[in-house]
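With this grant's support, we have settled on a layout for protein records. An illustrative entry appears below exactly as we store it:
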Amino acid sequence: MSLAPRAVIVHRRTEYEELLARHGTHGQAAFFLSSRGRSIDEVVRRHHRTRQALREVAAAVPLTWRSSRVERADLDRFLFAPEDVVVVVGQDGLVANTAKYLRGQPVVGIDTDPGRNPGVLVRHRCADTAALLRAATAAGGRAEELTMVEAVADDTQRLLALNEIYLGSPGHQTARYRLGSDGEEGPGEAQASSGVLVGTGTGATGWLRSVWLERGSPVGVPAPCDRRLLWFVREAWPSATTGTTRVAGDLVRGQGLRLTVESDRIVVFGDGMERDALELTWGQSVRLGIAGTSLRLVT
């Protein structure tokens, strides 16, 4: 007998909850904000809207389903199952934070603060939840397959990201490595830079786009569902031993970018989740390319 679907509601602490955790009481949090020219009233209103949204989403889960909740900080310890339908309640970035832990489960994005969030990934309102859950499990339900990027290290460590993967020094030091195309002969070009950014069409609305605009790149940005990635080397430094001939490009299916570490430590993290990063040391290599897994975003 197959298991009933499970609705996994993903959320994150509100700004008000973070303020209480830091300052202890409402009064102390209000004083802290007022000393910086802000009022706590709007923070509290957004908190109440988010809590109400979570209640409405939970109430929309069918009685025959199972349900669970997970907070953003616990995503790296939560075990998602194949029969899950993931309901992200919050901001666009929370969908990206969740995507790296999924393996094809459908995702529903619920916007808790329409007008404040761009709504690129959280496209729906709380009132739509019941219909979206039915659509997520129905045969032929509509979903966009958003391209993801992956990094696979030579020791089999693997990292997925929806927006972008960053490789670089964990501090402000220069990252040193060799960069080349996957499968090419030779060690690649020795580089010293602020790191390498490899991103998707979804990421082309954020960090990747800012680099693309700054460079004035002639390569067009991909759409979220396009099976194509863009990559950029940030602030490559030319010297007698390091080059700058490979600083940007794109990758299609079957192509990869290979980076071999030539410093004590390089970190690899996706979508701003620095706490959940791969750590590579001298001589290790990592391949970056289009992931075999996509994010199934229910539309």
Notes: The helical segments are 15-23, 26-34, 40-60, 92-99, 129-137, 207-215. The two ends are 29 Å apart (CA to CA). The first strand starts at residue 6 and ends at 11. DSSP finds six helices and 18 strands in the chain.
